[in-house]
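Subject: Sanity check before I submit

Could someone independently write out the structure tokens for this chain? I want to compare against mine line by line before I put it in a report. The sequence has 274 residues.
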Amino acid sequence: MSSTMTPLVASGAPRTWRRFTAAQRAARFSVYLVIVAAIIASARTVEVIPEFLYDAPEQMQDLFRRMWPIAFYHYQGGVHDALMDTLHIATLGTILAVGMAVPVGLMAAHNVLPNRAVNYTAKLVLVSSRSVNSLVWALLFVSIFGPGALAGTLAIAFRSIGFVGKLLGEALEETNAGPVEALKAAGAPWLSVLAKGYWPQVEPAFWSVVLFRWDINVRESAVLGLVGAGGIGMALDTALNLFQWDRVAMVLFSIFCVVVIAEVVVTRIRKRVL
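---
Independent answer below. Compare away.
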């Protein structure tokens, strides 16, 4: 220890510990500067009317007074059927998405199909599905098939392909190659390798992704009706257009209850099955 400390004492300049080097400090400062500049630029481009901000608390209080008491009597006649349509849209859309996402996810996994052209094409499909919002998908299908639950179901399905397919492909690429190579060495056909080598390893992740996506789709399908794609969103849009705020509160309360119940159901299924 004395031999290590001697040069420091002799030079008279003890070394000072610093967490970051000069280059790292400059990089951190640059990142912070870019963030601050982005915030300032965003604040300048967003048109905020000060008069609307000043009376926002009063407007919120007035809105809540209009919503209370909640029109529970409106549930049976104006909310129940639309709520069931929402659940059906989310469920059927998830099933369709899984059916379309599984082949694309298999093609995206390089260890399953070692062909770069096929892999990149499949990943392009997955990215395209995720890059378009569900409301945009709904507007597209409403213009093709007209307003209704069919447009909402297809919007949910095409939006979910990218989510399910991407996570399935990543799970396949992370599988252990040992069982797969043993099956191939034994001369097993490709479907047997897929069923016995890959599937047991990705099954928990697959069902977890499917359940999680259904939970998300329940939330998303609740607002698709705002653009005419069926479900409880249409009941919400009707109540908003007619300024029936007590019925708006009933619809929002129903959506909240369904989301909470879906979360509980998904959690229980995951604990029992996975």
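---
OP: Matches mine. For the report I'm noting this point. The longest helix spans residues 74-108.
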